[in-house]
Each structure stands twice: as C-alpha cells, then as structure tokens.
Amino acid sequence: MKNILFVFLVAYVFMLTNCGQKSNDHNHEHHNQEEQSANQGLYEEVMNVHDEVMPKMDDIYKLKEQLKKQLEATPGMVDEKKRDLENTILQLDSASEGMMVWMRNFDPIPDSLGEEKARKYLEEQKEKVNKVKEDMLQAIEEAKAKALE
Q1: DSSP letter string over 2-35?
Q2: How many distinct structural domains can be found in the chain?
Q3: What is the pTM of this model?
Q4: In a domain, 121, yes or no
Q5: Residue 30: is it exposed, middle or buried by C-beta count within 10 angstroms (0-12/13-18/19+)?
Q6: What confidence score (pLDDT) does residue 35 get?
C-alpha cells in the first residue's frame, strides 16, 4: 500500500511540475508574441512614414526643375538670388538622396535577429526615416517659397 501511495505522490508531483513548466513555456511564448507584435507595430510605423513622404519625391523633382528653369530664364539675376536658388536646388537634391540612401539601406528584419535587436533596429530606422521626412518637407517648403518669388 505504501508503494502505491508513493507512486501516486510521485506522479502527482510530476504532473504539477510539468504543468508548471508548460505554463512557464506558454508565458514565455506569450511574451515573445507580444514582442513580435510590438516589433510589427514599429515596422508599420516606419513604413507609414516612408509611404507618407515617398510620393513627395515627385514634388521634389518638379520643384527642382521649376527652379532650374527660373535660373535659366533670368540670366541677369542678382548673384545673391542666384546662389539662393542654387542652394535650394542642392537642398532638394540632398533631401531626395536622403530618401534613396535610407531605402537602399533599410532591410526588413530577418527572424534570426532576435526580438530585442529587431526592436532596436526598427527604433533606429524610425528615427532615420523621420529625419528624411523632416528634410524632405523642409526642402519642399523652401523651394515652394522660392518658386513663388
């Protein structure tokens, strides 16, 4: 009888530890899913910024061409005004190049990177793409002001 009771006790302890382990595994998996979900959200934020400003590349091109024509159409333009327009064109070029460089360097996260490293990478990319956005919008705003002068 003692042996049967002992076997049941061992089986009971074994079941408790296994259930506890499964619960811990489940909690760990749940935590990983939350991290993946957070990283997916961060990835979507990065891509939303990109998608918002990418169409503005066309605006940059058109403004640049407009300013070039303005320079060509006014050969006797005051040097200061000419330099100002040329600098605005360079600013447009720089903003456009910033977007192209960011896109070339951006890599969707490989699964093998790990959740923490993926999060850090995406946070860095979010900062970079927001800087690209800021540069593009500022260049467009300044170019529009120059085009109206």
Answers
A1: HHHHHHHHHHHHHHHHHHHHHHHHHHHHHHHHHH
A2: 1
A3: 0.74
A4: yes
A5: exposed
A6: 64
Domain that holds residue 108: 39-148
Q: Establish if 29 belongs to a structural domain.
A: no
Distance from C-alpha of 132 to C-alpha of 7, rounded to nearest angstrom = 68
The residues near 142 (Cβ < 8 Å, ≥ 6 apart) are 88, 91
Domain contains 91: yes
Minimum mean pLDDT range among 59-63, 81-85, 114-118:
114-118
pLDDT the model gives residue 34: 64
Cβ neighbour number for residue 95 with a 10 Å cutoff? 25
In a domain, 96, yes or no: yes
